[in-house]
Fold this protein.
Amino acid sequence: MAMNLTRRNFLKAASIAAASVPLSKVAAKAESGVVKAPLVAQGSFKDTQTAVGGVCEMCFWRCQLVGKIRDGRLIKLEGNPKSIDNGESICARGNAGVKLLYDPDRLKYPLKNVGKRGAPKWQRISWEEALDTCASKLKAVQEKYGSKGIAMFPHGSTASYPMNFFEHTVGTPNVSEASFFQCRGIRDTAYLATIGMPPGENVDMPNTKVMLLIGDHFGENIHVSHMKRYLKGLENGAKLIVVDPRYSASAAKSDIWIQIKPGTDTAFLLAIMNYLIQNEKYNADFVDEYGEGFDEMAEGIQEWTLEKAAKVCDIQASQIKEVAELLAANMPNVAIHPGRHVSWYGNDFQRQRALACLTGILGAFGVKGGFVPPKGPKGLAKVKWPSGDEEAEAIHHEEDIYPFSPPGTPTDLIRNAAIEGEPYPIKGCVVWGQNPIQTIPNQPMTIKMLEQMDFVMCVDVMPTDITMYADILLPDTSYLERYDYIKTGTQWNFADEQQQYIAPRMPLVAPGFERKESIYITNEIAKRMGYGDKIPVQTQEEMINKRLAPLNLSIESIRAEDGIHLQPGQDPYGDLELDIVFSSEDLEDYDFPAIPTYIPVEEPPAGFMRLLYGRSPVHTFNRTMNNAWLLAECDSNPVWVNDKLAAKLGLKEGDTVSFVNQDGVKSRTNTTVKVTPGIRQDCVYMYHGFGTMNKEMTLGHDKGVDDTSLITKLAVDPETGAHGMRNNFVKLIKVS
Ligand SMILES: Nc1nc2c(c(=O)[nH]1)N[C@H]1C(S)=C(S)[C@@H](COP(=O)(O)OP(=O)(O)OC[C@H]3O[C@@H](n4cnc5c(=O)[nH]c(N)nc54)[C@H](O)[C@@H]3O)O[C@H]1N2
Ligand SMILES: Nc1nc2c(c(=O)[nH]1)N[C@H]1C(S)=C(S)[C@@H](COP(=O)(O)OP(=O)(O)OC[C@H]3O[C@@H](n4cnc5c(=O)[nH]c(N)nc54)[C@H](O)[C@@H]3O)O[C@H]1N2
Ligand code: SF4
Ligand SMILES: [Mo]
């Protein structure tokens, strides 16, 4: 069915799609026929017990865990052998969760800042005082400025309950999730506008013949079951095409590596599509049946000859042809990966549309090896905060901009409003599991925003950059100490005999010190703000049991199943009902290009290189920056510099450098140089998430360079309001 993209419908669809678990009113009955793998009852140590039901959150993939417990202490984490997702595998970060749990620098008690924001002096206070202060300060902001005077920056599973409270019951639209506006929001909305659903990472890599990765750097970006799918595909002989200006871990495994000029991928994709169409090497039957506006697109992209794109992308025309031919020869069993972190250049909605359209002309939807949405368990109940009295439009909707935005408000609009007081003041700030200082581009503006607030509260597990700006800092339980999220999904390998799983997170150990779970914290603040009668649940356990009830499941029943409930699944292939909107009237109505369109990005000024960044395989941004085991693996983020460029700049491998960007902003710390032919001369590259400025992170403090500090310029995506961060340019300054 076609999606009617009026703004309200779009938002509705977007927020439904944004929920991370499939929700349906139809309760799928838990059936017998469940496969039950026996758990390893004992570890190799005497007196070691195995606790089941762990769900990792060292990153947001949420692998299923068991914990080895001795004398009440967690000594080791392993993949839950019953898992049909990650299985017994976990990554380095997953393993190192033990060191987060017992990190001596972790937040232990509620703290009050008796110093300054940014230069805090902490005083330990009681929960009573902390909660009273948070509630009275937020209430005061609400009374003076209205609910929209409160902004919230959430991320992670403990943030969803308070986010729902602030958005829905308190009624502020000023909520900004990093995972949308700085990460994957554009992907989800571009696919929603093209195929009516967000794509997840749902390509059938194990069974594909060709994988096309645009910038995805698997092996550095690590999500265990996703990696398993990717590696299985390679093992099964799939051809790998990697498009990346850098010789990434994926490029190193590729059959074809396209060392593209940064920011030009859409031109590359348009030329592939044009070539396939001109040479009648596309899936015409599929396009006829499911396509909308194909002829308009075909006509509109005719200018994109191989030669023209080759020039724009600074690659060989023959390479584009080779890629197009390989895709055509193997269609429809090709995996065009939708990517994940896609907020790059402010022209990203167009690139994501092009990826969806390319998948369409190859007929690669719902088929083996193509784009295959998993059919996960349905029927979990929703538990939500009820609506409050206030309901304000988000700033961008009032101003009629960014009609294709993901749910929430673009961060820069919240920040600008707070700083300017226009269209209205924003004076209360709740940060819950996000580190806006390192996550959102333009730190000086973020700091300005924080400084003008009447009140800032943070709920975190560690002292990080953002917690330095809190007035009240509250210690959350870690993912190893709490019930919360229900992870659901299907077998990792898209096997014919599909199964589904339901794995609620259960604590592996009891919470230490005075750490409290987010439902307690939220409810206590809610009561004190006068919303006591609206509280939907009292504890995380109650929440999970309520959600599981329609399926006749409970925490106890699933614990008895070794922490994971399995049930028969559905054939993943076929019966995919979608229309592929090649040319979109809805987009045209808003004066955006109806067909995927290449929009050039700013070139580096003379003497500057474009700053690119990505993932360290053993860190998750700043959130692992104080982890002793992970720092032992990697404690800095050397900057990749092309070998010829290095020679011109007089730089050698291992030299120490600092940075200055196009706006004259200097890096606070230094890093070393990695000289390599594996990166273009017009850009440099480093891992994101290093160089934290909080000295309370006694191990991670000042290790490496904070890439975000150099990202002062935003390239805002006009359709979605998301932040492109790769339009910043640096010079290297040799220190030694
Ligand atoms: N320059 C630059 N910016 C980026 C990116 C980039 O590559 N480069 N990547 C973007 C992407 S893809 C993403 S997803 C975002 C991620 O952005 P964030 O979500 O802000 O990233 P983290 O560094 O993980 O910060 C999360 C915060 O949550 C805290 N935390 C960890 N566990 C818990 C918990 O159990 N409870 C609570 N309350 N807090 C917890 C951590 O200590 C940390 O302070 O950043 C985006 N921003
Ligand atoms: N180990 C580990 N794994 C993680 C995370 C983590 O922190 N640590 N974070 C998780 C999260 S939240 C996310 S969103 C994902 C992000 O992982 P991905 O979605 O794979 O992230 P990208 O930003 O696409 O990847 C960065 C790559 O893009 C390349 N690149 C830069 N500019 C361009 C360009 O113009 N064109 C092309 N084609 N390539 C370009 C860079 O050289 C680099 O190799 O990773 C997830 N996995
Ligand atoms: S990929 Fe690694 S860090 Fe992420 S959830 Fe899985 S084990 Fe944890
Ligand atoms: Mo992300």
